[in-house]
């Protein structure tokens, strides 16, 4: 391979030097074929065209070079030009692997996967060296037909031919994912590992599959093998530590995360996980230190700000909790979980206007969550903003026909001396769910004298 690279580089240098010096230099057809292939592979259409033009000036009827010209047309999506040349060279169908491959690619680009597959299968009969590439192409076309099982079969055939073909390997994993066949995927990985025991990617994927089904013991074993094969694998170490977290082995998880820290230049996420482990161990000062380090390493990591806010909340320091939560909201202003926590903390501090603002944002972001509306109306009632409560309740009732909303609406009407509207709303509330009546009468005392009416 290194020798081939050297020869290619030498050819490219000769060709480009010829162009720069405006010379005429002799090249063998095979040399020009390699030069054109190089430019097509790197996506340089300008030099591909120059190489083709020079090649045809020397060898105007060379069929191999014409096949490369088809490939050039396909790279520019010039399908009509490609089709014309494909027709001229149709006598090559039974003998030229490169011709078959470009024709197959042409039909694939024409969105005719069945015809593409026909030509790829003909190519298989001639191909000896890159069988895995052809099988992968066939599999890709079956995916275009939504035939995932057939695609999976052909990706596996490619992997049988070349166990180091990462494209085949990861495509197989993706097929199993699309088929929702996680147990079959695990069996495939176990079989692959039996044949390739030092395949780091396979052990890592096996761990990922076990994580997906919450089998943390087997996941830990798989990621442990990853770190044995490659002690410098940051992902292997962090996933191993995550499994330990899930198994509530927090002290061990911290130790493994600290190993990862020695290798990781961007350690904010790792410090975040360490902080969460210390929190589970109720070592709050160490947890805070880790969270603050996470924020220092990456001030844009909103999850670190939230984790710090959660810890301060747990410690009863709501002012600090809100400070950190507000920084998270600045980074992700559409996260409804952050706004719900914000509203809760403001209520804890007795800052109902701020809580009402949070609920207003929530109903804008998540209008089909009734609890956002109930919270908004509740804060309006507590603040004495009854007209606002009526407006919000009527808006909520456009989305939900719920008794809780009518009880709230009735309370707001009665508190604004709209007696008849209040009684009508109360009747609807009781009709929808009378079991809530005692709770609501206690919550909204003004309703108590109206149930008999």
Mean of pLDDT: 93
Number of strands: 0
Question: How many DSSP H or I helices?
Answer: 26
Rg, alpha carbons: 34 Å
CATH architecture of one domain: Alpha Horseshoe
Approximate helicity band: over 70%
Q: What overall form do the CA principal axes indicate?
A: elongated
Strand content: under 5%
Largest sheet: none
Which runs of at least 5 residues are low in confidence (pLDDT < 50)? 1-7
- Secondary-structure-derived class: mainly alpha
CATH class of one domain: Mainly Alpha
What is the name of the CATH superfamily of one domain?
Answer: Tetratricopeptide repeat domain
For the record, give the distance between the C-alpha atoms at the N and C termini, rounded to a whole number. Answer: 93 Å
Description:
The chain is mostly helical and 453 residues long. Among the domains are: 1-77, no CATH class; 358-453, Serine Threonine Protein Phosphatase 5, Tetratricopeptide repeat. It is built from 26 helices and no strands. The radius of gyration is 34 Å and the shape is elongated.
Brief summary:
76% of the residues lie in helices and 0% in strands.
Write the layout of secondary structure elements.
Blueprint: H1 2-21, H2 29-41, H3 45-58, H4 63-75, H5 79-88, H6 97-109, H7 113-126, H8 131-144, H9 148-161, H10 166-178, H11 182-195, H12 200-212, H13 216-229, H14 234-246, H15 250-261, H16 268-280, H17 284-297, H18 302-314, H19 318-331, H20 336-348, H21 352-365, H22 370-382, H23 386-396, H24 403-415, H25 419-432, H26 437-443
Helix pairs in contact: 1-2, 2-3, 2-4, 3-4, 4-5, 4-6, 5-6, 6-7, 7-8, 8-9, 9-10, 11-12, 12-13, 13-14, 14-15, 15-16, 16-17, 16-18, 17-18, 18-19, 19-20, 20-21, 21-22, 22-23, 22-24, 23-24, 24-25
């Amino acid at each position: 391979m290194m020798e081939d690279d050297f020869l290619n580089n030498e050819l490219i240098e000769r060709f480009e030097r010829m162009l720069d010096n405006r010379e005429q230099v002799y090249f063998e057809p095979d040399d020009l074929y390699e030069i054109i292939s190089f430019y097509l592979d790197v996506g340089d259409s300008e030099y591909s065209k120059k190489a083709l033009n020079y090649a045809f000036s020397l060898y105007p009827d060379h069929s191999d070079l014409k096949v490369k010209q088809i490939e050039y047309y396909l790279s520019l999506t010039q399908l009509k030009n490609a089709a014309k040349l494909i027709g001229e060279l149709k006598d090559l169908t039974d003998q030229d692997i490169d011709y078959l491959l470009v024709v197959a690619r042409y039909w694939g680009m024409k969105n005719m996967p069945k015809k593409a597959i026909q030509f790829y299968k003909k190519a298989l009969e001639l191909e000896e060296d890159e069988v895995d590439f052809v099988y992968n192409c066939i599999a890709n076309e079956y995916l275009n037909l939504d035939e995932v099982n057939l695609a999976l079969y052909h990706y596996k055939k490619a992997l049988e031919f070349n166990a180091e073909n990462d494209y085949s390997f990861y495509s197989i994993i993706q097929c199993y994912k699309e088929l929702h066949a996680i147990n079959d995927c695990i069996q495939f990985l176990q079989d692959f590992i039996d044949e390739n025991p030092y395949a780091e990617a396979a052990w890592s994927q096996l761990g990922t599959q076990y994580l997906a089904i919450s089998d943390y013991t087997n996941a830990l074993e798989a990621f442990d093998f990853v770190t044995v094969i490659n002690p410098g694998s940051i992902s292997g170490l962090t996933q191993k530590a995550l499994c330990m977290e899930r198994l509530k082995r927090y002290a061990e998880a911290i130790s493994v995360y600290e190993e990862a820290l020695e290798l990781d230049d961007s350690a904010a996420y790792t410090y975040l996980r360490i902080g969460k482990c210390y929190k589970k161990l109720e070592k709050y000062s160490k947890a805070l230190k880790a969270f603050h380090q996470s924020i220092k390493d990456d001030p844009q990591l909103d999850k670190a700000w939230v984790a710090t806010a959660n810890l301060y909340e747990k410690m009863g320091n709501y002012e600090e909790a809100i400070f950190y939560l507000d920084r998270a909201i600045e980074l992700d202003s559409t996260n409804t979980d952050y706004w719900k926590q914000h509203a809760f903390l403001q209520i804890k501090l007795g800052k109902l206007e701020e809580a009402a603002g949070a609920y207003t944002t929530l109903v804008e972001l998540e209008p089909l969550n009734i609890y956002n509306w109930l919270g908004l109306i509740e804060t309006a009632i507590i603040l004495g903003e009854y007209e606002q409560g009526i407006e919000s309740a009527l808006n909520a009732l456009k989305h939900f026909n719920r008794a809780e909303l009518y009880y709230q609406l009735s309370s707001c009407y009665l508190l604004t001396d709209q007696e008849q509207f209040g009684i009508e709303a109360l009747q609807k509330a009781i009709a929808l769910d009378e079991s809530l009546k005692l709770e609501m009468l206690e919550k909204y005392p003004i309703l108590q004298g109206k149930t008999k009416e």
